[in-house]
Every structure is written in structure tokens, then in C-alpha cells.
Amino acid sequence: MLAQEVRMAPDRAQHRTPGNMKDTVKTYKGYEIHPLIYPRGARDGVAVRAADAGYEASVRIRRAVPEGEEAAGDSRVFRVTQPGAFENGGQARRACMLHAEKLIDGQIDGQTVADL
């Protein structure tokens, strides 16, 4: 899997997911992992049936904040790419989590979250 990196300010790091997909957040080694799952081909507000096109995925990573404190600081979004679409949201979500853990562990050349 390859990934593109996109920097986001904290106030722009929000996302929406379709109603049937939970916003699953995992904490791993002091970082929050937010999977971002969306129908393949969804651009410019054009509706796309995920059942027909499959799913694409990105993952937003930021430093975890202690409970009760408000999130501050930058997050970074990494695109999870593969040759074809993910068949379902669960498959895309698992790929997000695996990709994020590899990034956090420093196993992906040229990409890091150490400066967050």
C-alpha cells in the first residue's frame, strides 16, 4: 500500500462518514487514529453508490489528548491506496488501522508522525 500525506489544521480535521459507518477512533502508542472511509469516485458533491464502486480510505492521525482536555495541535491525513477499491467499509477500516500502526511504528519510508 502507498500513501499520500496531507497536512490539516485542527479546525479542518473534521470529517463525516455515511450513516451506516461508525466513526471508529483507536488510540495506539499515544496517537489517535481516525479512519476516513468514503465511496470510491465521490468528488465535488456528486453522489456515488458505494455498493457499485467500492470504497476508498484515508486515515487521520494526531497525538492523543488526556481525557477531559480539548484536542489541540495538527493532525495529518494519509491516503491509503491500493490497485482497486475496497469491497466494503470493514475492509477499508481494517486497512486504515494497519496503515496507521505501520506509520506510527516508523515502518513506512518517507512518512512520519513523529513531529505531531
Overview of the structural elements:
This protein has 116 residues and is α+β, with helices and mostly antiparallel strands. Helices cover 17% and strands 27% of the residues. The chain has helices at 50-53, 89-104, and strands at 5-8, 26-28, 31-39, 55-63, 75-80. Strands 1-5-4-3-2 form a 5-stranded antiparallel β-sheet. The longest helix is centred in the C-terminal third of the chain and has 16 residues, at 89-104. Mean pLDDT is 77; it is low at 1-22.
How is this structure best summarized?
The protein has 116 residues and is of the alpha+beta class. It has helices at 50-53, 89-104, and strands at 5-8, 26-28, 31-39, 55-63, 75-80.
What distinguishing features does this structure have?
single chain; alpha+beta; 5-stranded antiparallel beta sheet; 27% strand; disordered N terminus
- Which structural category do the helix and sheet elements fall into? alpha+beta
The radius of gyration computed from the alpha-carbon positions, rounded to a whole number of angstroms, is 14 Å
The largest pleated sheet is described as: 5 strands, antiparallel
The level of helicity is 10-25%
State the strand order across the main sheet: 1-5-4-3-2
Q: Low-confidence parts, pLDDT < 50 over ≥5 residues?
A: 1-22
Please write out the topology.
Blueprint lengths: L4 E4 L17 E3 L2 E9 L10 H4 L1 E9 L11 E6 L8 H16 L12
Antiparallel strand pairs: 1-5, 2-3, 3-4, 4-5
